[in-house]
Amino acid sequence: MSHVPSLESLHALGARQQPAYHDPAARDAAVSRLRTMPPLVFAGECDDLKAKLADVARGKAFLLQGGDCAETFAGVTADNVRNKLRVLLQMAVVLTYAASVPVVKVGRLAGQYAKPRSSDLETRDGVTLPAYRGDAVNGYEFTAESRQHDPSRLVEVYHSSAATLNLARAFVTGGYADLRQVHTWNTDFVKESSVGQRYERMAGEIERALTFMQAIGADPDEFHRVDFHTCHEGLVLDYEHAMTRIDSRTELPYDVSAHFVWIGERTRQLDGPHVELFRHIRNPIGVKLGPTTTPDDAIALAGRLNPDNEAGRLTFVTRFGSERIRDGLPDLVEKVTAAGVDVAWVCDPMHGNTFEASSGYKTRRFDDVIAEVQGFFDVHRSIGTWPGGIHVELTGDDVTECIGGGEELLEVDLAHRYESVCDPRLNRVQSLELAFLVAEMLRTV
Ligand code: PEP
Ligand code: MN
Fold it and tell me: What is the pTM of this model?
């Protein structure tokens, strides 16, 4: 099991969604450089997250996984990273307090730079160029030069991830995530919104509880820091393979580019290279499952990726769409459960609900997102399985990318502040609203 297949043997399996580099020597140089770089995360931290995800699989904790669809190199700024962490902390505290369930916090950040695309090409005004595949592969700017696949970007992924992770670690251990900051996370535009005021009342209750605890002399470490982990889609094999190392403690391979990596809906072929690489790494891993997934597909994936049926090792992230979840999910969950597969079930209510607005912007309706999460909870409740978490695309800023929500964003508002280079994200107010709604669903499980 500890023998990792060579990068060449993975490519020989016919990898989908990979960059096409025209200069093999430059690609080899980037891969060699990455192999010399220090790990971004430690294997022991991956094991800690795996233990937490085992609690999720057992129905004792809830996973909050969120961040950009696609991070960008230009987005590695202090404000941007802080804002994303802040909204995740706010959501986590809402879920923990309102539902009394431990929340496992995993940022979709510090490595989320590669995107699978449904088309290799993009045409604008009669000009056709390679599609944008994430900053890991090419540039967003619509010019031939920028859209060329450039292997040196893989090294930049490493450095951008390191800078983001360094700041994230400082924020979560250096006082910013201290529960006594619960009010200060609720700043600026959010505070004025009605969900912000609801949050403010809850923060007041938490603060009173903290003061009481302190008065009786209790001040546990948990009040001052949070556990925070990172994840991204493990898409580009050159990068993920180069970042796979043998852990000196256990002599087992880990992908040290993030704590958790997942296989996307487009690359989850049972005999494909992504499953082959992921089969060998010891990180906790996920697989996205769309509406065409059969129970046999899922059972076979679990057999391949988690042959020992270890709890916490495997998370299935379902993304059916609000219209298909109630019909499609029950059979999948029932048969996977009946097969004795130990897995955490998580809902991605974003990717099955994307559509193009008449203005041309890719968007999602907040109501569809909520409807899918509600469907996910209802299906699991009726089967007796645990709705283990949510996987969402969000940002800490007040962007206008998804329509609806308490601020009632309309299609015409999309142009106002649409910043995503890929899929539309919930803004900070919508994210907080989602957290309150999910907390209510959790209370009645
Ligand atoms: C994504 O998470 O951004 C993504 C592309 O998802 P999926 O593989 O589910 O389509
Ligand atoms: Mn996406």
Answer: 0.97
What are residue 288's DSSP bridge partners? 317
List the shell of residues around ion ligand 2, using CB closer than 5 Å. 69, 423
Measured in Å, residue 216 CA sits from the centre of ligand 1 at 48
Q: Is 291 in the pocket of ligand 1 (CB under 6 A)?
A: no
Phi, psi at residue 141, to the nearest 5°? -55, 140
Residue closest via CA to ligand 1's atom 4 equals 264
CA distances from 129 to 17, 138, 247 (A): 16, 11, 41
Q: Is the pLDDT of residue 1 over 60?
A: no
Model confidence at 279, in pLDDT bands (50, 70, 90)?
Answer: very high
Q: pLDDT tens, 222-236?
A: 888 899 999 999 999
Q: Which atom of ligand 1 is nearest to the CA of 69?
A: 3
Atom 3 of ligand 1: nearest residue by CA position: 69
> To which residue do tokens 């059979």 refer?
331
Residue 152 Cα to ligand 2 middle (Å): 24
Confidence of residue 359 (pLDDT cuts 50, 70, 90): very high
**Assigned token pair, 168:** 């994230």
Give the Cβ contact number of residue 355 at 10 Å: 12
Nearest CA to ligand 1 atom 8: 264
Going along the chain from its start, the domains and CATH numbers come out as 7-177+225-443 (3.20.20.70)
**What SS3 class is residue 66?**
strand
Q: What is the pLDDT of residue 433?
A: 96
Mutate to test the pocket of ligand 1, among 260, 289, 325, 351 (most ligand atoms within 8 A of CB): 351
What is the residue-averaged pLDDT of the chain? 96
Nearest Cα neighbor of 268 from 332, 317, 201, 215 is 317
Q: Is 288 in the pocket of ligand 1 (CB under 6 A)?
A: yes
Ligand 1 centroid from CA 266, angstroms:
8
Count of Cβ atoms closer than 10 Å to residue 152 Cβ: 12
Which of 241, 236, 229 is CA-nearest to residue 389?
Answer: 229
| Other residues' Cβ atoms within 10 Å of the Cβ of residue 31 | 18
Query: Is the CB of 116 within 6 Å of ligand 1?
Result: yes
Confidence label for 2 from pLDDT (cuts 50, 70 and 90): low
Q: 301 CB contacts (<8 Å, ≥6 apart)?
A: 268, 270, 275, 287
- The pLDDT of residue 355 is above 80: yes
In this prediction, what percent of the chain has a pLDDT beyond 70?
A: 100
Residue 186: pLDDT over 90: no
